[in-house]
Amino acid sequence: MRISVPHIPQASLLAKPSGLQITRAEAVDRLCRFIQEGRTTVLTGAGVSVDSGIRAYRGPDGRYMNPNYKPIFYHELMDDAEKGHHFRQRYWLRSYLGYPPVRDAQPNTTHFALASLLHSGNISRIITQHKPEVVFFGESIKQEVKQRSYHDIESSDQLLVVGTTLATYSAFRLVKHALDLKKPVILLNLGPTRADLLSNIEKINMASGTILVDVARLIIGRENQADPVLLNMLQSGVVNPPLPDDDRVPRAAG
């Protein structure tokens, strides 16, 4: 069995920085217009959780921040031999050390911005790479989850991708599916992604936390003055990114 670690192709890492070279105000305006153009499905990744204090595996250059990073694969975890026992010990020890920061993490401004857009009907669906169930590297996503995500792409007019390098193929293939269906795609992410060399993708090279709250406030407009739920959402969320040298903070995938 040969299973590789999810990665961004070397060609994308070595390419010149991609994405629209625009100001923050121009990015906010572009995203507002995009979301209002039709039924929008949103695909999110680890980048949306950084402001909650959970580090992504990859840095702004698209490479793993830990050069010795080696994930535990599903077949290793489930191995009945003694080596499988050691893999399980390693997994549970790391989970024991990393769980408290995840347990105590609070939703950030990006989470609330997306929730407000969903609550107000301005986006139709959200597909997240952080489901309540753990999916290991090398493990298959449940068939019903895969089919539902495909259906979400097919029933929308366009796709907004937020905070992910798309290194994991299960997410990348959703973008390819949207492109195959001739649906507009905007990618909001800081740094290289697996999709950078694909044509017909519009990329905004910025972190989601810097602009999505303003996007939500402008789109929702007067509604946030009348709806107490929306008003609360647009005023909520932590901004607590982890310190770059604090290795106690767990890393998310994506």
TrEMBL record:
**Keyword annotations for this protein?**
Mitochondrion, NAD, Transferase
- How is this protein annotated for GO cellular component? mitochondrion
Where the record annotates domain Deacetylase sirtuin-type, the positions are: 17-237
Cellular compartments annotated: Mitochondrion
Span of the signal peptide: none
Q: Does the keyword Nucleotidyltransferase apply?
A: no
What are the recorded GO MF terms, alphabetically? histone deacetylase activity, NAD-dependent; NAD+ binding
Under the heading InterPro entries, the entry gives: DHS-like_NAD/FAD-binding_dom (IPR029035), NAD-dep_sirtuin_deacylases (IPR050134), Sirtuin (IPR003000), Ssirtuin_cat_dom (IPR026590)
Describe the family membership recorded for this protein in Swiss-Prot or TrEMBL.
Belongs to the sirtuin family. Class I subfamily.
Protein name as annotated: Deacetylase sirtuin-type domain-containing protein
Q: Which organism is it from?
A: Candolleomyces aberdarensis
Q: What is the lineage of its organism?
A: Eukaryota, Fungi, Dikarya, Basidiomycota, Agaricomycotina
